[in-house]
Specification:
It is a single chain. Helix content is 56%, strand content 3%. The longest helix has 30 residues. The N and C termini lie far apart (48 Å). About 17% of the residues have low confidence.
Length: 344
């Protein structure tokens, strides 16, 4: 029989703890169970909380946005593909298409998985969130084929009238007409002329705002209890997107004269503390910080986006940060308009 040393046992225990807490990453599910237990522990100094990044870039930076990004050989994550999906997500006048939005998350999940198994645990939870919205969309498409739209709208209006207690400003808007699959032009020399087609989700889950509207009509959203609604799931993804945006922004920043480049681990931890951490319990925060300790060095990120130095990394990441910012701002506005920024 092989016996484990103390260090090995400790490592196994940490991994098990991270796997367990990883499932609570976006849920905040430990908050109620651990709140009373954690009262006796000293609390960290409150970090500066970031709720949105307003970075439109300089004129010279926006000029470089026209330069196509090439494919990075030998890896699953492709920054050019991520940027294509992000740029395809905004829809007029102020909406976000769910299909390219979720495809953007597919690439971000690959990005996190490339950072090692510890950060990969977090990506598994996020992947579960995107699967929830996709399943809701598929179920909705099947539902639309089985019953007339007029009947659903009538039932939704009756539900809103029955729940009109003055606490929420619910609006019943006209739903979009029949939609076709979305075609998105991808970037990169290897993708000239290539179009990436998204399967049609149907009208209700075509965009962020259409999903909000239909789930309010159906009473799917609960403002007091946790549910697996698309709106609540989107909110968890929305919060995580700000964390990744801030991390990428910090990773692309150039140090001041005479200052050192900070490690990705340090930058990721700081970005987490300024965004997601205040939604999590003390125990989840500690587990997250353990995961960030295992993050690769800066040279790994050069290879991940196919650049050779910090200046080139900044150019690429700033493009991604600005594209995320547009998607994030539109989603933020929609959730705020319907008082959904604090869904349980």
């Amino acid at each position: 029989m092989v016996t484990m040393g103390i260090k090995t046992k400790a490592a196994v225990a940490i991994v098990i703890l991270l796997v367990f807490l990883g499932s609570m990453w976006l849920q905040g599910g430990l908050e109620n169970q651990w709140r009373s237990c954690m009262k006796g522990f000293p609390q960290d100094q409150e970090p500066v909380i970031v709720t949105i990044l307003n970075d439109t870039g300089t004129d010279s930076e926006r000029d470089t946005d026209r330069v196509p990004l090439g494919k990075c050989p030998g890896q699953d994550f492709q920054v050019s593909r991520l940027l294509s999906y992000l740029l395809a997500a905004p829809a007029p006048p102020s909406d976000v298409l769910l299909q390219p939005y979720l495809s953007s998350w597919d690439e971000l999940i690959k990005f996190m998985e490339a950072l090692g198994p510890m950060v990969g645990i977090i990506s598994q939870e996020i992947d579960g969130k995107t699967s929830i919205i996709r399943q809701l969309a598929r179920n909705d498409a099947e539902r639309q084929m089985e019953r007339p739209q007029e009947e659903e709208v009538r039932e939704g209006e009756e539900h809103i009238r029955a729940n009109a207690d003055g606490r929420r400003d619910w609006k019943v808007e006209e739903r979009p007409g029949p939609q076709t699959a979305i075609a998105v032009k991808t970037e990169g020399k290897d993708a000239v002329g290539e179009e990436r087609h998204f399967a049609d989700f149907g009208e209700s889950y075509l965009s962020v705002r259409s999903m909000i509207q239909v789930e309010l009509r159906r009473g799917t959203v609960d403002f007091a209890e946790q549910t697996d609604s698309g709106c609540r799931t989107l909110l968890r993804l929305h919060r995580a997107l700000l964390w990744l945006q801030l991390f990428l922004k910090k990773l692309g920043e150039k140090p001041a004269a005479g200052a050192r480049l900070r490690s990705p681990s340090e930058l990721c931890r700081e970005a987490y503390q300024q965004t997601l951490a205040h939604h999590h319990s003390w125990l989840v925060r500690r587990a997250a910080e353990l995961a960030f300790l295992a993050m690769p060095d800066r040279g790994f990120f050069f290879r991940l986006v196919c650049v050779h130095n910090q200046d080139d990394l900044a150019l690429v990441l700033n493009r991604v940060v600005r594209a995320i910012g547009e998607v994030y701002q539109r989603t933020q506005n929609a959730l705020e308009e319907y008082s959904m920024l604090n869904l349980p």
